[in-house]
Amino acid sequence: MTRYRTRIVLAFGWTVAAVASTRGGPNLIRNPGFEEGESPTYPGVGLHWETNDAQPHPDIDVLTTSTRHSGSCSQWLKAHETWDLGMVRQLTPYHSITAGKTYRISGWIKTANVHNPAGWYVFGAWYFDDDTRIGESKMPQQETLNYDWREIAWTVVAPAEANRIAVLLTRHTDGDVWYDDISVTEVSPGPPLISVSPNSFEKRVLKGQNAESDVPSVQNVGGGTLNYTLTDEAGWLDYLPSAGTGTGETDAIVVLYDTADLPVGRYQTSITVADPAAANPLVSVPVDLTVWTWGDLDGDGDVDQTDFGLLQTCYSGNGIIQTAPACADAIMDADGDVDPEDFALFLGCLSGPGVEADEHCAD
């Protein structure tokens, strides 16, 4: 991928464009919607599908009619008291894919009853040269916690020597996941398609400091060659590169925040990733930046009686940890509680109504 190392000012925050491409060939997955009944070998698993360890797991694998995206069934990987990992897969026939060609992998997925924030699943694929595994691909980003049916889709280029692909449906969580309408299709050549990740950024920075840098990525998930540029309307970010080209690989964009001179307040802006020849020629992305200072609990730039009232509501006492998110900035001595020491620091930061607070008052 060619990169142009031109330095320009950029407003930051990315969103993922719909990951789709012009699709061509037939679906390589048999029984993609789990409508053709149950595997004779693996109870609870759809016909033509199998467990990853070649062992039946009927307590985890359920072919269900009660929850589905379409049709009459879906593949349910069920929550279990002791088994937190489940996986079913399907390996396509020999010589069903061609090295160097592009394929779109997609599926509809629903999760529920996930309580552990570390709960996750992976929808992915393995590449094979006959019976030898030679590589893998995973969905663009890890998904967590609970949501209703959504489509996860991305495109891949089959690596050298690959002639088969296995689709993996997994669960590693305290909850449940359902899969339906799984698809692997060859992508016919089409226009470029811009994909940007991650999908959003919210930044908070203490007045007088620069926010930590971020590294988003730009990728062409369509056909042809993407020729993209990045433009913005703000003046407090620099990044490299400002433009590039791509045929499927990922470009990392290093974004530097120049926020040290910004007054206290909330800043909202957007950036544009553009290629007039792309199927989605403009991808506009919001960014939300908050600049704060010590003692200014209401975010209006001064430290006054209103802030003192908020500080009083956050008082927890010596050694009693204050966990309320709204009280995070009231913990001025970084010891976890809101006690007389924080009140003393606050009094040193009082500026009065309409008078900008000193960001060094609690140093």
Would you write up a description of this structure?
The structure is a single chain. With about 375 residues, this protein is mainly beta. It has three domains: about 5-15 and about 190-290, Immunoglobulin-like, CATH 2.60.40; about 50-185, Galactose-binding domain-like (Jelly Rolls, Sandwich), CATH 2.60.120; about 295-363, Type 1 dockerin domain, CATH 1.10.1330. It has helices at about 305-315, 340-350; strands at about 5, 10, 50, 60-65, 75, 85-90, 100-110, 120, 125-130, 130-140, 145, 145-155, 165-170, 175-185, 195, 200-205, 215-220, 225-230, 235-240, 245, 250, 255, 265-275, 280-290. The strands form six sheets. Strands 1-20-18-23-24-16 form a six-stranded mixed sheet, with no helix packed on it. Strands 3-6-13-9-10 form a five-stranded antiparallel sheet, with no helix packed on it. A five-stranded antiparallel sheet has the order 4-5-14-7-12, with no helix packed on it. The two termini are about 45 Å apart. Mean pLDDT is about 85; it is low at about 1-25.
Question: What's the gist of this structure?
Answer:
The chain has helices at 305-313, 340-349, and strands at residues 3-4, 8-9, 50-51, 61-64, 74-77, 85-91, 102-112, 120-121, 123-129, 132-138, 143-144, 147-157, 164-172, 176-186, 194-197, 202-206, 217-220, 226-232, 237-240, 243-246, 250-252, 254-257, 265-274, 282-292. The chain is mainly β and 363 residues long. The strands form six sheets. Strands 1-20-18-23-24-16 form a six-stranded mixed β-sheet, with no helix packed on it.
